[in-house]
């Protein structure tokens, strides 16, 4: 079973503890190998090589080295090879030199067939030679030193030396292999032994326990030796089936990466073994725009893309770090040991850099990106569940801010107890209709004509006082409440529009909606029902959406957008200039007006760069035949500068602050022309400031 998380073939850097350990074991084992071969009796070996038994054993050893019996989920340990039974039998019957020679041939053949790295082959030769040497030393203590010329056949009285020899063999191999794994994955040897020694001991007991029987059969009926393949095959297939079930339970089927269950186990182990002064890092990574690939190219291409992403992530972290797939396009990375937050950010940056390399599939090139959230133990959370939750919070912060990588910050956690309590209060405020809409007019810069009002939701908390929209709107957007809040605001706006229109104040009300709201199939139905109930025309209300809607192709193809266009409800593009819109994308979306973000408007009298940006936007909007609206107009100088540029409409405190419905009604009676305000006929008029 191939495990994509296996990084053992990556050569260790020279001078590292792992490099020193592998080099030392390879050198010591090589020395023991040379010493054993020098003790080999050439004549006896030649005579043995002339017998069919020698070649049968050699073939069984080589075949037994090709596929290990896997009994542990720790793939780095490598499993137990069935050749152990035959090499140990050769050790008992023909002595150390012959056993070492066969074992080395089998290990080298395994390396060639499975394409192992040279450092792994040398280490395996060294550790298997040392294990056989340790077993031979124990036998020698009991005076058992067999040779090809004088083979040894054990009897019932020899159980003790055989058992002690087998124990020496197992302990030597287990300590050497687990030591290498511990250094490779930067874990403690005790932890590796605890996770693998038990299952490995069971298999070694079975294989080494059968070796004396193989010796007895070799001495009496050599032709029956191949029959031992049958019980070996049964052990192998039983263990393989068990491991496959274990692997499926702990790994993702598509990518082969660990799943959430294994991530939990690995994280809890890392937390339990963390040292003072070190941190455990948990990253959550979500791919950006992956759904577009699935929708456009189909799920098979999306699956291949996820497999490539898994491969890239896996090879961007250190051995011992865990890369897991949680589902969909969401991955997690566990760093069992990380120095500090700065080091964690460096790893996250490396992960994103690996993702941004273009991917070519089905003749197309895909540009990927991802958002990474980081949470650290013990800085941010004491256990797995809280680490996961806070890494998730950080990831959404990275998505919202488009920074790519964010470290968890408690003051920005919308899931803190205080924020959750506030969310509950907001839900009750919506249910009890405690939110109020304030209205800010939009005024023609050269005519003074009223071109509509924008509805701005306000919340006065009974305990905390006025809660700024910047606090409770994002809270609603990341919860189930946003749809309910949008429905409430639209209903309130339609009801107020009906009052005004029936009083002869035919003014258009603009309502802000999120991109998610705009793609909600229930939105056109709510508007259609509401307009009919209050006997209002479709252009009595206008929906304002942020420029971010232009980033996705759904905005141009979604049925909801088409339904709104059919209904006749106009769209306004809010905060224009803060995103990454293009002329082509703006042309494709049917909007009635474009609102220039206030961050540019406020600085046009101070910054030449901002003035050029605003002028360019105004020219662009005019060329498309749309209405331009400047937000945040706060001075006469800015208003006149905008009018000179050709900007159509202004909105800001220069004209009027947001007003409650009663005050807005009085203001509209004083300023609204007798002609319908929805037209664009300009007439000379003075721009009026209202306190």
What does this protein look like?
Helix content is 54%, strand content 13%. Strand 8 (436-444) and strand 9 (450-461) form a beta hairpin. The chain is elongated, with a radius of gyration of 37 Å. The N and C termini lie far apart (76 Å).
Write a concise keyword list for the protein shown above.
691 residues, alpha/beta, 8-stranded mixed beta barrel, 5-stranded mixed beta sheet, 26 helices, 54% helix, disordered N terminus, disordered C terminus
Brief digest:
This protein has 691 residues and is an alpha/beta fold. Helix content is 54%, strand content 13%.
Q: Indicate the low-confidence ranges by residue numbers.
A: 1-5, 553-557, 579-583, 674-691
Beta fraction of the residues?
Answer: 5-15%
Cα-to-Cα separation, first versus last residue: 76 Å
Helix content percent band:
40-55%
Content-based structural category: alpha/beta
How are the SSEs ordered, and which strands pair?
Elements: H1 17-38, H2 42-49, H3 52-64, H4 83-94, H5 96-114, H6 118-141, H7 159-185, H8 189-220, H9 229-250, H10 260-273, E1 279-287, H11 290-297, H12 299-314, E2 322-327, E3 330-338, H13 341-355, E4 359-361, E5 364-366, E6 370-377, H14 384-401, E7 405-407, H15 417-431, E8 436-444, E9 450-461, E10 465-467, H16 469-477, H17 481-502, E11 509-512, H18 515-518, H19 522-533, E12 541-546, H20 554-557, H21 559-567, E13 571-576, H22 583-588, E14 593-596, H23 598-601, H24 608-623, E15 627-631, H25 636-645, E16 649-651, H26 661-671
Parallel strand pairs: 6-7, 9-11, 11-12, 12-13, 13-14, 14-15, 15-16
Antiparallel strand pairs: 1-3, 1-6, 2-3, 4-5, 8-9, 8-16, 9-10
């Amino acid at each position: 079973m191939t495990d994509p998380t296996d990084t053992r073939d990556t050569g260790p850097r020279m001078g590292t503890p792992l490099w020193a350990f592998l080099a030392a074991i390879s050198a010591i084992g090589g020395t023991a190998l040379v010493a054993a071969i020098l003790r080999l009796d050439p004549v006896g070996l030649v005579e043995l090589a002339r017998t069919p038994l020698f070649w049968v054993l050699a073939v069984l050893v080589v075949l037994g080295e090709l596929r290990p019996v896997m009994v542990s989920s720790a793939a780095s340990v490598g499993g137990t090879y069935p050749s152990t039974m035959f090499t140990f039998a050769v050790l008992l019957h023909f002595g150390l030199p012959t056993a070492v020679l066969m074992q080395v041939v089998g290990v080298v053949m395994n390396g060639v067939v499975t394409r192992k790295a040279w450092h792994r082959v040398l280490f395996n030769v060294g550790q298997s030679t040392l294990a056989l040497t340790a077993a031979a030393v124990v036998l020698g203590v009991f005076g058992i030193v067999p040779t090809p010329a004088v083979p040894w056949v054990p009897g019932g009285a020899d159980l003790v030396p055989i058992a002690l020899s087998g124990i020496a063999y197992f302990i030597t191999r287990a300590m050497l292999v687990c030591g290498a794994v511990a250094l490779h994955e930067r874990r403690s040897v005790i932890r590796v032994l605890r996770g693998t020694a038990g299952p490995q001991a069971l298999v070694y007991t079975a294989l080494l326990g059968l070796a004396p029987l193989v010796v007895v059969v070799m001495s009496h009926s050599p032709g029956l030796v191949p029959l031992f393949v049958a019980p070996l095959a049964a052990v192998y297939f039983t263990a393989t089936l068990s491991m496959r079930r274990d692997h499926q339970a702990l790994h993702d089927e598509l990518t082969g990466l660990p799943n959430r269950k294994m991530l939990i186990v690995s994280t809890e182990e890392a937390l339990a073994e963390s040292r003072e002064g070190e941190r455990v890092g948990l990253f959550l990574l979500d791919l950006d725009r992956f759904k577009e690939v699935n929708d456009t190219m189909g799920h098979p291409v999306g699956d291949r893309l996820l497999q490539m992403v898994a491969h890239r992530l896996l090879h961007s972290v250190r051995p011992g770090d865990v890369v897991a797939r949680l589902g969909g396009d969401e991955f997690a990375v566990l760093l069992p040991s990380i120095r500090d937050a700065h080091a964690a950010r460096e790893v996250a940056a490396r992960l994103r850099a690996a993702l941004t390399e273009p991917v070519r599939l089905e003749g197309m090139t895909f540009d990927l990106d991802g958002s990474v959230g980081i949470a650290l133990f013990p800085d941010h959370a004491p256990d797995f569940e809280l680490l996961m939750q806070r890494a998730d919070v950080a990831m959404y912060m990275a998505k919202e801010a488009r920074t790519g990588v964010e470290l968890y910050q408690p003051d920005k956690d919308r899931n803190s107890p205080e924020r959750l309590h506030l969310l509950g209060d907001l839900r009750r405020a919506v249910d009890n209709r405690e939110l109020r809409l304030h209205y800010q007019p939009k005024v023609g810069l050269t005519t003074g004509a009223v071109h509509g009002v924008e509805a701005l939701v306000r919340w006065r908390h009974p305990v905390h006082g006025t809660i700024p929209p910047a606090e409770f709107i994002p809270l609603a957007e990341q919860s189930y409440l946003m749809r309910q809040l949008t429905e409430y605001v639209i209903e309130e706006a339609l009801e107020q529009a009906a009052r005004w229109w029936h009083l002869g104040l035919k003014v258009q009300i603009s309502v802000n909606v999120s991109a998610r709201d705009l793609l909600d199939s229930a939105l056109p139905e709510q508007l259609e029902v509401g307009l009919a109930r209050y006997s209002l025309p479709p252009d009595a209300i206008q929906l304002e959406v942020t420029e971010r809607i232009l980033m996705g192709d759904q905005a141009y193809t979604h049925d909801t957008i088409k339904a709104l266009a059919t209904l006749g409800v106009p769209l306004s593009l809010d905060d224009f200039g803060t995103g990454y819109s293009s002329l082509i994308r703006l042309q494709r979306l049917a909007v009635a007006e474009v609102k220039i973000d206030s961050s540019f408007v406020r600085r046009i009298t101070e910054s030449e760069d901002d003035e050029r940006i605003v002028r360019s936007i105004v020219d662009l909007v005019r060329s498309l035949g749309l209405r331009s609206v400047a937000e945040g107009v706060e001075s006469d100088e800015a208003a006149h500068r905008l009018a000179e540029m050709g900007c159509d409409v202004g909105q800001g405190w220069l004209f009027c602050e947001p007003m409650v419905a009663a005050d807005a009604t009085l203001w509209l009676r004083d300023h609204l022309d007798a002609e319908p305000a929805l037209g664009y006929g300009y007439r000379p008029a003075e721009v009026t400031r209202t306190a």
